Amino acid sequence: MIKFDQVTKVYSGNPSPALDDLSLEILKGEFVFLVGASGSGKSSFLRLVLKEEKPSRGQIHVLGQRLGALSSRKVPYFRRNLGVVFQDFRLLPNKNVFDNVAFSLQVIGKSKGFISEAVTDVLKLVGLAGKATRMPHELSGGEQQRVAIARAVVNKPAILLADEPTGNLDPTTSAGIMALLERINQGGTTVLMATHDASIVNQMQRRVIELSNGTVLRDEQSGGYQTQALPIQRGSGVSNTTGIQTIPGLIR
Ligand SMILES: Nc1ncnc2c1ncn2[C@@H]1O[C@H](COP(=O)(O)OP(=O)(O)OP(=O)(O)O)[C@@H](O)[C@H]1O
User: Fold this and answer.
1) CA dist 78 to 50, 52, 124, Å?
2) Is the C-beta atom of 43 inside 6 A of ligand 1?
3) Of 97, 177, 87, which Cα lies nearest the Cα of 138?
4) Whose CA is nearest to atom 25 of ligand 1?
5) What interhelical angle do 112-125 and 141-153 show, nearest 10?
6) Label partner for 237 (CA 20 to 30 A): which of 12, 139, 147, 182?
7) Which atom of ligand 1 lies nearest, measured to the CA of 44?
8) ipTM score above 0.85
9) 72 C-alpha vs ligand 1 centroid, how far in Å?
10) What is the pLDDT of residues 182-227, one digit of tens each?
């Protein structure tokens, strides 16, 4: 479903690779947490899956397609198979809930009847059936994230990528979002979620891929957050005995 084969990503102006000779495979239907310290390469990994960035070396296959062979003309069609959710929701502020979710279907030319049915169904799935005409600013953070998830899955993508989807939410609201992502996964969608939320990862006990300096430090089938407890590094921000990059003052 997603296969990275010796992938290195070096950004211009940044000598140390964001991903360093990374190989891994994610299978259809899996629910995978991507964890690791800030700067370990999680968002870079997601951007490469979306073909928002190109690898400097190595091959990436997503849904049976070699991304290097995909022309830029075909990228929008390829992306229709992928839903994406971000920490900051990214809703269109001037459109109501229904229109935020409908928008992605309108731009790909779906009929009004199809859109009406699909949006109604997905708003039911995310628990917002009664709020179709609300504007984003009239919703709580958790509700806004539910709209963003509805928008991401309305076209029934094979893969849902989530970059810290609970990062702006309190624990109870986050638990509701995770229950929703689990339901979406049970419906057959492969879910790949980058997160710093230890309690969620510990509670769900799903596959955990831990990155460190762009390499896989740990790949566990049913794991917890478990990033090594590190001494507080005041001032340096890097080096410690494990070689894992740390943020000064942050205990993991
Ligand atoms: N556009 C860019 N240009 C240059 N360097 C970049 C760029 N994007 C990311 N990097 C660097 O690549 C490395 C990995 O960053 P990335 O954003 O993938 O990490 P992350 O694990 O998602 O971090 P966080 O948890 O803070 O979101 C970091 O050293 C970062 O500074």
Assistant:
1) 9, 12, 27
2) yes
3) 97
4) 38
5) 130
6) 12
7) 18
8) yes
9) 24
10) 999 999 999 999 999 999 999 999 999 999 999 999 999 999 998 7
